[in-house]
Automatic annotation (TrEMBL):
Protein name stated in the entry: Proton glutamate symport protein
Coiled coil regions, renumbered to chain: none
Listed InterPro entries: Na-dicarboxylate_symporter, Na-dicarboxylate_symporter_CS, Na:dicarbo_symporter_sf
Gene Ontology process terms (BP): dicarboxylic acid transport
Membrane topology: Multi-pass membrane protein
Upper taxonomic lineage: Bacteria, Bacillati, Bacillota, Bacilli, Bacillales
Signal sequence, renumbered to the chain: none
A GO cellular-component term linked to this record: plasma membrane
Domain of life: Bacteria
Molecular-function GO term, any one: symporter activity
Annotated source species: Gottfriedia solisilvae
PROSITE patterns: NA_DICARBOXYL_SYMP_1
Length: 423
């Protein structure tokens, strides 16, 4: 296996997973044996994310040290995230009007998924209101937030702690060295976990195909095609323009992140590659302080692939029930999605919960989303990959905006990548 790179191993695992899943379609016993392998891999990924985010943010903020400089970076980053996600939502709505994926679907032949858990989460989160969402950013118990994988309070705590480490001067140096050590150790752990990636991918894909089969895709093929084409258009054209403005090339970035994009696509998890994209963007010339702040924050505020899906899925449900939405209603839907997508940050199954909350706010039938629950994983694969690409590009954009992007380092990294391929 050492002859082949991780990307090749994952691709082979993907093909084998599809074949095995097709062979054991509907076989509950086989699914029960294969599923734990994928679950273990996902658990390992979730295990490494939180320590890396905390250590990286503390090291980054303590490195910056200046609260004004940090506030300036934070303001610019959030402004960028808001603009790019709004564009993504707008493109999702345009695509829904262009493709009409929900028109002419025979709902009687669709398998309904169980969305009760998501409904409860959507209702609970909606009832919070805007004020409570803001309050939620400030953790009452940081260990509770860690155990729940809730990134927003963790980001706030880590930034505050990092500022504290910087403020106490020499006394803070041992603490800073400790977290630098934690970060390096966690990157080593990540490398070990990634060795199991092909097995995790194989199991996750095999279980998905064995559970749902290809027949589940056919009635909703138009929606799958619409989501994939729109997300790819956004990645190549919109992010491509963004990359050009930042002085780089989107295809160069895709080449650099090849393994991470394949892994996030096959596992339907952008968390799986968080440590790797942070390391690669740093090697590509972005300062550690910017990478460590922008990328973890982007995992909450800059999910462009998810934004496209949310807009498309909302209009898909309206079209499926023959509910015509005027231009004004669609603009309202855009603003509702802007609010709900931020309010659901850090909630498990956030994309699904956002769509549910949005349907409820717009008076659209909630049961419509249950009809696409079966294929949600297939849709999640492409949106996870684009979330990864978008957050990596955000780090480059912010480094350029701050005038701290190291072109020479980026060129050296590109040369080393080319040399390693030749070797």
């Amino acid at each position: 296996m050492k002859k082949f790179g991780l990307a090749t191993q994952i691709f082979v695992a993907l093909i084998l997973g599809i074949v095995v899943g097709a062979i054991f379609y509907g076989n509950e016993t086989a699914i029960a044996y294969i599923a734990p392998i994928g679950d273990i891999f996902i658990h390992l990924i979730k295990m490494i994310v939180m320590p890396i985010v905390i250590a990286a943010l503390i090291v980054a903020v303590a490195g910056v040290g200046d609260i004004k400089k940090l506030g300036k970076l934070g303001g610019k980053t959030l402004l960028y995230f808001e603009v790019i996600t709004t564009i993504a939502l707008g493109i999702g709505l345009l695509a829904a009007n262009l493709f009409h994926p929900g028109t002419g679907i025979d709902m009687d032949h669709l398998q309904k998924g169980d969305i009760s858990a998501y409904e409860q989460t959507a209702t609970a989160t909606q009832n919070k209101g805007f004020a409570e969402t803001i309050v939620h950013i400030f953790p009452k118990n940081v260990f509770e937030s860690m155990s729940q994988g809730d990134l927003l309070p963790i980001i706030f705590f880590s930034v505050l702690f990092g500022l504290g480490v910087a403020a106490i001067g020499d006394k803070g140096k041992p603490v800073l060295h400790f977290f630098e050590g934690v970060l390096e150790a966690m990157f080593w752990v990540t490398n070990q976990v990634m060795k199991a990636a092909p097995f995790g991918v194989f199991a996750l894909i095999a279980v998905t195909v064995a559970k749902f089969g290809v027949s589940t895709l056919l009635p909703l093929g138009k929606l799958v095609l619409a989501v994939y084409l729109t997300v790819l258009f956004f990645a190549i054209v919109i992010l491509g323009i963004n990359a050009k403005m930042a002085g780089t090339n989107i295809f160069t970035l895709i080449k650099i992140l090849k393994e991470e994009l394949i892994l996030s696509f096959t596992t339907a998890s952008s968390e799986a590659v968080l440590p790797n994209i942070m390391k690669k963007m740093e090697q590509f010339g972005c300062p550690k302080a910017i990478v460590s702040f922008v990328i973890p924050t982007g995992y909450t505020f800059n999910l462009t692939g998810s934004a496209i899906y949310q807009a498309l899925a909302s209009l898909f449900v309206a079209q499926m029930y023959n509910i015509h939405m005027s231009f004004f209603e669609q603009v309202t839907l855009l603003f509702v999605l802007m609010l709900t997508s931020k309010g659901m940050a850090g909630v498990p199954g956030a994309s699904f919960v956002v769509v549910l909350a949005t349907l409820g706010s717009m008076g659209l039938p909630l049961e419509g989303i249950a009809l696409i629950a079966g294929i949600d994983r297939i849709l999640d694969m492409i949106r996870s990959a684009v979330n990864v690409l978008g957050n990596s590009l955000a780090a480059i954009t912010m480094a350029k905006w701050e005038g701290e992007f190291d072109k020479d380092k980026a060129q050296q990294y590109m040369n080393s990548v080319k040399e390693s391929k030749v070797a």
